[in-house]
């Protein structure tokens, strides 16, 4: 997950953070009395709506070490508000349960002990009912703080004092953005869990009024981008995670950017041409990983006989739609396909520059699939993580991972932006990840 550095962060990010907080304060001063509380309620309700189609048994199981049970997601996002806001800002704070601090701590060494991530599915207790009671109590206390914050002449005994307003707003915004990240993870973790079941159960039924028709094929065009110095990274007002800063310059050579993502039909041609059996297309580590995992097609594709394929979706098994973007690919698969196609993956600087320039010309930059880039996940020049436990949100993960750009069909609608840097290991397949190609000009 990613982190917005608080006001006390190093000077390299302080100006950006101050702008974000100032914008939040201005918005608060001009919003209706209940608006911030309503936003918090909608956010928290959305997480519970994601879990609504599931049974209690569904919510407890962990499909693999990289995924988490839905019950854990619901508890951990609550833990964040309790640990980083209520504990600091609520007068007379007492935890809902003292052991929850350890059970639902993800990776914050500064907070204390953690329960092992691969064993989260073994936590049959607390029961889902108790986790929901935990959410309800924390929400009640958070809304008391928010209401006090929005009220004129707020009592410092029931809400943060004016001197603490900026810190409270920054942490509240971070907590809400953090929960949106987990909402996407909940959807992808549910999908991988249900896909393991031989019954291939649907997460939710396909509405009678909805048809999963193959979309019209988008023409593939190549847009030339001239060489030059480009600026990437977040600047100005509005929220961002700290890994999006500081804004800086990079030089890019001339290149061509594909107008859309690679679709299923194009990727199927790679599969049928023996792309998974040709070592010359694969990075060495990717080839060894592929052999160990015995992979020969994307994660959710299922052979249906006579050269036909089906795909596991939230609505269960559905016919593979040729013109939809291929998704659930690892970096290794994306890189091998690009090499087979006589192309390559974009760097993240190329992606951000192209996405900004090709508005109205390029397609599927957002809302379809996260797009693998060839850029290793590393700090921008001048990056500085914030001190303390919240500073662990992002910076310590800047190694052995690749950057993905854009957003996916599982990303909350108001969560994406041009400068967002997602990141995963090269082997990750369970996220909604796809391919946008580049070529030299």
TrEMBL record:
Residues of the DinB-like domain: 40-186
Domain Sulfatase-modifying factor enzyme-like intervals: 224-356
Keyword GTP-binding among UniProt keywords: no
Alphabetically ordered keywords of this record: Iron, Oxidoreductase
Any one Pfam family match given in the protein's UniProt record, by short name: FGE-sulfatase
GO biological process: ergothioneine biosynthetic process
Domain of life the protein comes from: Bacteria
Coiled-coil regions listed: none
Pathway where it operates: Amino-acid biosynthesis; ergothioneine biosynthesis
SUPFAM superfamilies linked: C-type lectin-like, DinB/YfiT-like putative metalloenzymes
PANTHER family documented for this protein: HERCYNINE OXYGENASE (PTHR23150:SF36), SULFATASE MODIFYING FACTOR 1, 2 (PTHR23150)
Protein's recorded name: Ergothioneine biosynthesis protein EgtB
